[in-house]
């Protein structure tokens, strides 16, 4: 079962276009995130789970009013997450999960078993497919007709190993890659279409339940009400809610 070295932490304030830039390449390691971004949440969970709150400082940004200095001086791609470490800044959430796991201390998030390593790579490659299916369904009227295949795929994957409730049996980077998005899909589909992604999928239901016991993940979760309102504005016609 998953253990965690997560410690209590006071989250820093969000920086916007009026905020001064933190020092750059001064020897500190910084993780640039947005608190509501699922891609950034992946690396935030990784950092928490490995107990790196003192080694990796959070720099939260307001993506709707982001500082000009972020693109100009820190990360030209102007996206989050990005990690400032060893006088360079690198991005892409799946790459950063692996980078943080490999370059810092704390419990490993990658299996030693070659069979699990191979399955992990398969599952990580499916994350974009899951997101494309589910996000793509939100503006097509009734997503419940399309999303089932994606959640069935996760249910089947969770049957692969029986030495724990997670994708590889034990908690790993694969669970971290999926949970920020599944969290959001579960909330939005339930609230707007009364669709329960875990209904008829007992392994998926247990997976979600077990993840919600892990402090390093729980402390990164989005606000459900804010998420629903944001996704309504982003994906759905206004007329649906008049």
Structural overview:
The chain has 9 helices and 4 strands. It is an alpha+beta fold and 242 residues long. The chain has a 4-stranded mixed sheet with strand order 2-1-3-4. A hairpin with a 2-residue loop joins strand 3 (82-85) and strand 4 (88-91). The mean pLDDT is 94.
- Unreliable spans are none
**Secondary structure: helix percent:** 40-55%
| Topology order in helix (H) and strand (E) letters | EHEHEEHHHHHHH
Beta strand %: 5-15%
Shape descriptor reads globular
Count the E strands: 4
Average pLDDT reading: 94
Query: So how many helices?
Result: 9
| Biggest pleated-sheet summary | 4 strands, mixed
Q: How would you briefly describe this protein structure?
A:
With 242 residues, the protein is α+β, with helices and mostly antiparallel strands. The protein is 46% helix and 7% strand. A hairpin with a 2-residue loop joins strand 3 and strand 4.
Indicate the topology.
Elements: E1 29-33, H1 38-49, E2 56-60, H2 68-74, E3 82-85, E4 88-91, H3 93-103, H4 114-137, H5 148-157, H6 173-193, H7 202-211, H8 215-218, H9 224-235
Parallel strand pairs: 1-2
Antiparallel strand pairs: 1-3, 3-4
